[in-house]
Q: What sequence folds into this?
């Protein structure tokens, strides 16, 4: 199979280390594992190995919001102040947070400046406290333009907690992971990720081990751990109404003209773009602390590409080539003008 050949090439020539699952018409047509979960122990990866999903986690945060919206607990036009009256930045709605149009500053930068002890993990609520106390400058005013925001998605996770009355971790576990039988999927927990042979260790270029730090405990923008097999269950559930109605989910994939009107857009936790074949796909990538992830869905033929890597060496930069192989441009048909001209001359 050519998909297998492509990933073997990436593994052997470009250093790809990770797991892969590809589907078409809802059926798994390829799955594979390349390399090690831990280079020191030489633990061989399998399709059941758990990885940090990085920003691919955002789609679960968006789903939690959509579930609460469908239940009438919140609306997309609610302001942040309806849940946190003391929040200092005005005019930001849940919809702005979902579509990266809040303009909020990046918490990974201002936390580094204002968090006193980096040996202590920081929570979503503590990040909000830093925002309130120090009020770092916004990048843009709300709804002025698209600006990718991890801060916006940690704020969405905090809103899920406030609106539902349970922790964000519990909401995802009880309302999404358990109903979909995603038995090897969970949110960041220092004890769980320390399990050898279960959770992959993250590595930077040069196979330098990257251990979690104080920012890993922030959830919503990242922090979901899963396998390619569990993500296949998630993918399949999105073609059903197990979590939300089709009309609700449809809005998550709706064009908002928020990113680049010519090539790409952003829905609720998903990027939206047209591939070479002309099909419109939804996808997301992720990069965090030694993990690089990619998840693409094509609703037209119910196909999916799921790639999880625990070595951030640039090998996933070749996903465009793989995408173009799976969704090639239609052949160009050149009309035979000479035949038409001959007919015209003979008439």
A:
């Amino acid at each position: 199979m050519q998909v297998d050949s492509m990933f073997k090439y990436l593994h052997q020539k470009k250093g790809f280390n990770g797991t892969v699952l590809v589907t078409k018409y809802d059926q798994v047509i390829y799955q594979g594992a390349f390399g090690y979960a831990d280079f020191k122990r030489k633990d061989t990866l399998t399709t059941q190995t758990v990885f940090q999903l990085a920003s691919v986690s955002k789609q679960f945060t968006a789903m939690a919001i959509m579930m609460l919206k469908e239940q009438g607990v919140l609306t997309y036009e609610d302001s942040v102040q309806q849940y946190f009256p003391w929040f200092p930045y005005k005019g930001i709605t849940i919809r702005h947070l979902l579509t990266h149009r809040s303009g909020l500053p990046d918490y990974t930068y201002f936390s580094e400046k204002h968090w006193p002890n980096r040996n202590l993990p920081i929570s979503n609520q503590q990040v909000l406290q830093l925002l309130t106390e120090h009020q770092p400058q916004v990048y843009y005013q709300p709804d002025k333009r698209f600006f990718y925001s991890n801060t916006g998605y940690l704020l969405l996770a905090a809103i899920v907690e406030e609106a539902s009355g349970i922790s964000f971790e519990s909401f995802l576990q009880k309302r999404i992971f358990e109903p979909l039988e995603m038995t090897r999927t969970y949110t960041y927990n220092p004890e769980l990720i320390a399990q050898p042979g279960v959770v992959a260790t993250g590595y930077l270029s040069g196979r330098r081990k990257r251990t979690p730090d104080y920012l890993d405990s922030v959830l919503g923008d990242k922090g979901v751990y899963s396998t390619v097999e569990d993500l296949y269950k998630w993918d399949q559930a999105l073609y059903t109404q197990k979590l939300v109605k089709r009309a609700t989910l449809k809005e998550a994939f709706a064009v908002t003209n928020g990113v680049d009107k010519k090539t790409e857009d952003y829905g609720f936790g998903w990027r939206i773009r047209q591939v070479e074949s002309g099909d419109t796909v939804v996808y997301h990538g992720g990069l965090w602390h030694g993990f690089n992830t990619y998840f693409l869905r094509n609703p037209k033929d119910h196909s999916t590409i799921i790639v999880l890597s625990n070595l951030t060496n640039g090998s996933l930069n070749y996903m465009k080539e793989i995408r173009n192989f799976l969704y090639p441009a239609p052949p160009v048909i050149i009309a035979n003008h000479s035949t038409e001209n001959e007919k015209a001359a003979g008439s």
